[in-house]
C-alpha cells in the first residue's frame, strides 16, 4: 500500500481545493476575511484530515474519526460554495461541478469509514 498521496480521495480533494483557491482569487476584497478565508480553509482541511487519517490507520477509531472530520469539512465547503453562488461570485456551472466533486469525496470517505480494515497497515 502506498502513501496518502496515492489515495484517489486525497487526489480529488487536493485538486478541488486548488480549484477553489483559483476561483476565489476573484472574490471581492471585502470577502477576504470571511467567505474567501472560510472556503479556502475548509477545502484545505478536507485534504489535511485525509492525510492525517492515513497516518492513524493502525488505530481504527482514530482513523474513522479523522475521516469523519474530513467529511464534515467537505460538507462545510459545499455550504460556502452555495454562498459563493448566491453572492454572485461563482457561476452556477462551476459551483455545480465543485459540488459534484465534494459529493464524490463524501461517498469515498463513507466507504472508507464503513471498511477501515481495508486500509490497515
Which features does this protein show?
121 residues; mainly alpha; de novo design (two linked rop proteins); 4 helices
> How many independent structural domains?
1
**How many beta strands in the DSSP annotation?**
0
User: What percent strand?
Assistant: under 5%
Largest sheet: number of strands, sense, barrel closure:
none
Mean pLDDT: 97
Tally the helices: what do you get?
A: 4
Describe the model.
- The protein is mainly alpha-helical.
- The chain has one domain: de novo design (two linked rop proteins) (Up-down Bundle).
- Helices cover 75% and strands 0% of the residues.
SSE diagram, text form:
Layout: H1 8-24, H2 32-55, H3 60-86, H4 92-114
Helix pairs in contact: 1-2, 1-4, 2-3, 3-4
Summarize the structure.
The protein is mainly α. It is built from 4 helices and no strands.
